[in-house]
Amino acid sequence: MTDKPDEKKVTPRSQDFAAWYNDLILRAELADYSPVRGCIVFRPDGFAIWEALRDELDRRIKKTGARNAYFPLFIPQSFLHKEAQHVEGFAPEVAVVTHGGGKELEEPLIVRPTSETIINHMFAQWIHSHRDLPLMINQWCNVVRWEMRTRIFLRTTEFLWQEGHTAHAMRAEAEAETLTMLEVYRKFAEEILAIPIVAGRKSAAERFPGAEETYTIEGLMGDGRALQCGTSHFLGQNFARAFEIRFLDEKNELVHPWQTSWGVSTRLLGAIIMTHGDDQGLRLPPAVASTQVVIVPIWRKADEGERVVTAARSILLALENAGIRARLDERDGVTPGFKFNDWEMRGVPLRVEIGPRDVASGEVVLARRDIPGPAGKSKAAMNEVAVRATALLSEIQKNMLVQARAAMDANTHPVMSYDQLRTQMEGEGGGGFADVYWCGNPVCETKIREETRATCRAIPLNQSHPPGKCVVCGEPASERALFAKAY
Amino acid sequence: MTDKPDEKKVTPRSQDFAAWYNDLILRAELADYSPVRGCIVFRPDGFAIWEALRDELDRRIKKTGARNAYFPLFIPQSFLHKEAQHVEGFAPEVAVVTHGGGKELEEPLIVRPTSETIINHMFAQWIHSHRDLPLMINQWCNVVRWEMRTRIFLRTTEFLWQEGHTAHAMRAEAEAETLTMLEVYRKFAEEILAIPIVAGRKSAAERFPGAEETYTIEGLMGDGRALQCGTSHFLGQNFARAFEIRFLDEKNELVHPWQTSWGVSTRLLGAIIMTHGDDQGLRLPPAVASTQVVIVPIWRKADEGERVVTAARSILLALENAGIRARLDERDGVTPGFKFNDWEMRGVPLRVEIGPRDVASGEVVLARRDIPGPAGKSKAAMNEVAVRATALLSEIQKNMLVQARAAMDANTHPVMSYDQLRTQMEGEGGGGFADVYWCGNPVCETKIREETRATCRAIPLNQSHPPGKCVVCGEPASERALFAKAY
Q: What is this model's ipTM?
């Protein structure tokens, strides 16, 4: 019998955030390195989180009226060159197929880094009249970007994502769609992933290549670094012009539609880990946990074991019947203490402990992952476990957002001077959000980036400040922006 | 007002099966050609069928104990060469990435044509002890095979599929898993896609490259050609040896596991179309139809219109509340007749017709897509439409399988002589299944293929025949086999 967590130890988060992150992913079997440079394997426990969040987001996207489709993985190389900024942004990082079926191709194919080009080529075939609009398409797929430095989930050569692409008759409609999807993402991140979000505009320097405006949902990770969790782009008519998409409007004039694109990726798995994880390991929001409740039976003598396991199985059944993703840990050869540590490390939101005395008294212990120690424990009558677990999971889901928001608020600092900004961003750690007046001049933005490594993460949508002065140059600034070091 | 189906006419199936197939797919907006050789675009109405069947099959696969994961799109070229038959089968048809991030790669990467190699490379890292077995993984992904002749859904350069990969401690377990999955596929095809299936073994010539035994679910299309709808492979220890997967068994000896792989693809969309479609267009089994019931309001005067549309909307709501995927066709500018034709062409299983007299009498007409003309029509009280539609959809689902099985039976011929086989396979059409005694000798199989273009589609699992004589050579034959021309 052993109660050591494992030979493969997880570095405490408080000691080394980056090492903790990698250790945790490997130890919790969320992902593994692959023999292909920069590509990872999503193992079942990691992929199950992706499936849960994908299915929920898919429902929300479909509710807005978008429908799923699937476009080719390969894109003719010439397509990338049709939109000037787009090619500049993506050409350096594409993978190129030069041979197929044993022969060299006449025109090389690139593996999609994003699908604006091929999708808009098809939109040009499908859009002829204002009656064909709005056209709202979403695609779940893999994309490839040849990244120099990779990090599991956050930046990998191949990743999974959804990319929405829409075309509208009127500019205002497309602008509204861009913000509608930003809000879908914000609510999804907060309600399902329990990740508090700053929703805002990107600066011109941080825009998607080919977009007129890029909006972001930005999160703040446990080490004080920001993470872009999703983006929504207003593309204007750039791609419509490049791909010659035209339609007859109600006045019978041939005009270009207005477009958007928007996406989130498997990077969200990294966001969940880095927002919620602690020294004990992963903490999963119940909405995306593949195991929401684990039952650990505790006993020493064989006759106790039989009674305890029988009771545990009936609890498992009750939980499953209540629609809870539950699991009973019947492993031999490891102690209950080992199991507690193991499931805490794997992030299971709620644990049911049941021993011979519990069976006798008809009660079990429920232990919350979001509140450590005795404060997170409570008792429940055996026949009420499912009801109590349902209520607790809902509480845990909400509490994890509250905890994460408190951490973000504590790590967001109104900064009044450039010196204060530099001090905040000193050192190897993150530094959190610096909330500053910025005049909007890219020169000031570049100075901040070069001297502090902090970039403009978001110009929040809701501005309720009086006008002020730019933290760098002192010129008038009407808006505040959040700067941070970022992943 | 127009009641012509469309400028884009669909060739009648009875006139030209291949033209009908392509016309129908384009006209029903299931898919479109793409600018990339051999690749298609899955449009929303086509992709929705894939989503419905994928979600249902995914549930059934998970029930067997397999879990989803995701492995890299790219595979080092050298991996393909580790299993001799596998490389022979796939090397000629791979797409090769030679450049990434602007540089030539040291080792080219192939785009996965199937993932045995990379998955088994990972299995070697994960499998150490008999306690790690069985390991049962499934993956939904895109794969690429450089096909010479392509056909929408049936054979495309890129397609979508699921591929299951399992490893077991004992040979018998892996053999049982191979047949378990074959049976999952058979039931799925019959219950959900309403496609009658012959489940059987493939001949050695038709085996998956690297498998010891390949099993197939074989369907018979409306033109009398067979279509392989899914396969399940017993891989023996071939890949385990090639990728050095070893585990300590219960006797503490280091041995190779026994393995299987199994898959179905977007080819099933073609199978649905070619099994059920008719001269009027597509016919979708209710289980996979994105619109199961369409409501067509019929009226002439504006005041009638208001009453009819109001009633139609309340029926829509009732259908949706009953969990039916329903749709109300409120289009202006086209006649009810146009709408009838249009939705028949798109394959919607059930139509609700409602006019002013129906509103007055509190009744509507229900028209089944699977039974043409008056025989398929019935009346239902307005407040019972949802209940009646639910029952009818279930009947339609069953009846479509009955109809398709009758067509397959009528097109399956016990053949007693080689002359009879040749006659059956004459002409450009399909010819159906020839049910023959075959001695198992590849020489006889080759003769049949070369002289009649029919291949061995399946050696059915259930053989209840006395021994006979090979239809080609007259030698003793213990088994009967189904030969057919195939897609």
A: 0.96
